[in-house]
Write a structure and sequence with these properties.
Strand content: 15-25%
Number of strands: 10
Distance between the termini: 17 Å
Number of helices: 14
Order of helices and strands: HHHHEEHHHEHEHHEHEEHEHEEH
Strand order of the largest sheet: 8-3-10-9
Shape: flat
């Protein structure tokens, strides 16, 4: 699902707060709403996906295959691990296929004149005068008095982290005995969990260490539960006590989420932490408080410096733009939207981002911000550099197709949104 895809891209560091900041719930709702509208239209058109087509598509999913062939045991293991009924999973897949079939019937290929418009747009060529400014151009001496004044005005921004004193009983899995037969069977039933960065399934020999660790964790879970019961009855002692802030890497995001719903003296059932289980008792909750100046000094100094330099950079950029004609600046060769030669001192990536913003700007001169740099520019000369007929055909045709398809689908969804009513039963999205 969407959460898992983003979590994989963020190397497992996506938590509920980050997901909320990224608006994943809203994205998911928008995606579902769009699919619902298209399904209604597909139903009106009588578009169907047969059971045979559904089965063929299901069999193509590599995560459910063993040696290139669909494996029903792997598929059932996936459903069991995700706690999804086969009927629900296959209904979702069926709906996706219906939408794909509907969109494939819609011809949104760009017409010749549309391609020519795009070709003309990318053929505009500008010679510019420019000056690159950065934070390093701003001189600022940190003054303890000003830092203290800044802290006084922003005290509520500098709070100590909420902390928990935790008593932990660890149950290690590394000494759990396993056999090769158990290992192979465990891998066969859970092979969909072992994929490389490109999403391809890994063979057992290429991920054996990870599979073995997972198998040992599964086998040691029952013992961890016995330890949990014994700990609740004071028959075994904790291994350690740690006082840590919320979100500390000692535990996982899921465990922290549960801890925050519990009161002092609560004992959590065994939680998987890397290759061992943790039975956790909340011994004490330490609430946040405002930091004093000594505690906040490093953070407040850093923030004060950042804010002051950003404000100084903004003022310098405005002043440079105002006096651009009389100041020293660099002059580029003629550049286009597709230029890839760096505009010194910008690197290639920064140059590309700058040109993208430059060519959608309607201003002859102005200020463009690229991350931590500010480029003050003025267009000195402009010309059209139309390529020979046929040059860039593939690129412009692809661009025309993509722009037209996106525009068509956007307008189609707007039209369907007026035709069909979508009711929302969950508040806040």
């Amino acid at each position: 699902d969407m959460y898992q895809r983003y979590n994989q891209m963020m190397q497992g560091k996506l938590d509920e707060e980050k997901a909320r900041e990224m608006g994943l719930a809203q994205q998911a709702f928008s995606s579902i709403a769009a699919q619902t509208l298209l399904l209604n239209l597909a139903n009106e058109f009588g578009i169907i996906v047969s059971d045979i087509e559904l089965g063929q598509e299901l069999a193509k999913i590599t995560s459910f295959q063993t040696d290139g062939k669909f494996d029903i045991a792997v598929y059932e293991g996936f459903l069991k691990n995700r706690r999804i009924k086969a009927r629900i999973f296959e209904e979702v897949l069926h709906d996706e296929l219906v939408v794909q079939k509907l969109l494939s019937l819609i011809n949104s290929e760009g017409l010749p004149f549309e391609r020519e418009v795009i070709e003309a747009a990318i053929s505009v060529s500008d010679k510019i005068g420019y000056k690159v400014l950065s934070i390093e151009d701003i001189n600022l001496s940190l003054d303890d008095t000003k830092v203290k004044e800044y802290w006084e005005a922003h005290k509520s921004d500098y709070m100590t982290a909420k902390k928990y004193q935790l008593d932990i009983l660890w149950t290690d899995s590394k000494d759990t005995n396993t056999t090769d037969v158990e290992l192979e069977e465990f891998y066969r039933q859970n092979s969909f969990n072992y994929i490389d960065e490109s999403g391809r399934q890994l063979q057992l020999e290429n991920t054996k260490e990870k599979v073995l660790a997972d198998l040992k964790m599964k086998k040691s879970k029952k013992y961890a539960q016995k330890q949990y019961i014994a700990y609740k009855k004071n028959k075994v002692e904790k291994n350690e006590t740690q006082t840590v802030p919320i979100g500390d890497e000692l535990l996982t995001a899921e465990v922290w989420k549960e801890i925050q719903t519990k009161d002092t003296h609560s004992i959590l059932k065994p939680k998987a932490i890397k290759n061992r289980y943790a039975t956790i008792k909340i011994a004490k909750i330490i609430e946040p408080r405002e930091m004093n100046i000594e505690e906040a000094k490093i953070l407040a100094s850093s923030k004060y410096e950042k804010v002051s330099k950003e404000e100084g950079l903004s003022r310098l950029a405005e002043s440079t733009l105002k006096n651009f004609d009389t100041s020293k600046y660099s002059v580029s060769d003629f550049v286009t939207l597709n230029s890839r030669d760096s505009l010194n001192p910008l690197n290639t990536e920064e140059t590309i981002k700058f040109l993208q913003k430059l060519f959608i700007s309607q201003k002859e001169k102005g200020i463009i911000t690229i991350e931590n740099k500010v480029i003050v520019y003025k267009i000195i000369e402009q010309k059209m550099t139309l390529a020979e007929k046929g040059d860039n055909f593939e690129f412009t045709q692809k661009s025309a197709n993509q722009i037209k398809a996106e525009d068509f689908q956007s307008n189609l969804l707007k039209s369907l949104g007026q035709k069909y009513t979508i009711e929302k039963f969950v508040e806040g999205i």
